[in-house]
Specification:
Blueprint lengths: L7 E12 L2 E13 L4 E5 L6 H9 L6 E10 L2 E2 L5 H7 L4 E4 L13 H10 L6 H14 L5 H5 L8 H13 L5 E5 L7 H18 L2 E6 L2 H7 L2 E6 L2 E7 H6 L4 H8 L48 E4 L2 E3 L15
Helix pairs in contact: 3-4, 4-6
Length: 331
Amino acid sequence: MADDPPILSVDRLHTHFFTKAGVVKSVDDVSFDVHAGEILGLVGESGSGKSVTGFSIMGLVDPPGRVVSGSVRFKGEELVGLPERAMRRLRGRRIAMIFQDPMMTLNPVLRIDTQMIETLRAHEPISEDAARARARDALGQVGIPSPDERLKAYPHQFSGGMRQRVAIAIALLHRPDLIVADEPTTALDVTIQAQILFEVQKLVAEQRTALIWITHDLSVIAGLADRVCVMYAGRVVEAGTVADVIDRPVHPYTRGLIGSVPARNRRGVPLAQIPGMAPSPLALPEGCAFRTRCPDAAEICRTTPGITEPMPGRQTRCHRPLANAEAALPG
C-alpha cells in the first residue's frame, strides 16, 4: 500500500484565521499522506487544529480563515486555490466529509429518500428509480434495518446513532476515494460507536477508500486506524503506525495523552495528567508550544523544533525525543 501513490498528500499546510485580536495559526506546517484502503487518525485535544485540517482539505474554510500556504493534492490534483465550481464537482462525489453533528448533513424538513436521491443526481446522470435503489443499498451497508421504510422517514424520526449512520451512508453513496470524518461518533453511546466503527472499517476494506478519522479519543484510534498523527497547537508532533505510537511514544505530549487513559493505569495508582492547559493560539510560547507543560523541557526547547525521524517510520517534532521509548509510559 505504501508503495502506491497516495490518494491524498498534504504538504506544509498553513491555515490561519485573521481576527481583530490577532492571527490564529490553526494549522501550522502540517504534512501527511493517506493511501487507498488506509485509515489515518488525526488525534489531539480541542484547539489542536485537527478539525481545521479536515475543513482545509475539503475547501470549507471561510473568512476570516484561509489557507495561506502549502499544498493539498488529491490523486495528483492540487486542491489549494482550485475554483469553487471545480471543488464542488469533487466534493461529495470523490471526496466526502462526515461531520460530528449529522444534522450538518441532513435537512430536517426533507425525507431521507429525497436527500439521498438529490445527492446522487447532483453528480451522476441517473434515474430516480436507480438512485432510490442505490440509497436503499447504502442504508443497508451501514446496518440500518428495513431500509425501504427508513427512506420514507424524516431525520427527527431517527435516533442519534441512526442519523449518524444515514450521514455515513450519504458520504458513501458515490463510493468516494477519500472520506474525512470529523469526530462522527463522539456524541454516541459506546455500543452504537462500536457498531459504526466496525461498519466503517469493513467499508474501507471493501471499497479501498482512504479515510481520515479526526478525534480526541486515542482509544478509538487504537482499534480503528492504521497510522496516526498526533497534533498539538496546530502542528503534528508525532506520526507513525498506531502500534508504534501507542506502545512506544517518542514525544512527551503523546506520552501524556496515553498515560492519562484510565485503562493504562494500575489499580490504585492516581491517574496521570498533563499539567497546565493548552496555550491560547494567540499567545503561543516561544519555541516548542508544549514547552511550558513538558516535564522534559530544556533550554533548547525555547527554539522551534523541526521534524526528525528518531527511528524508521516515525516522525516527531521535538528537540529531545524520548531516548528510551520502551520505558516511556508511566505506571
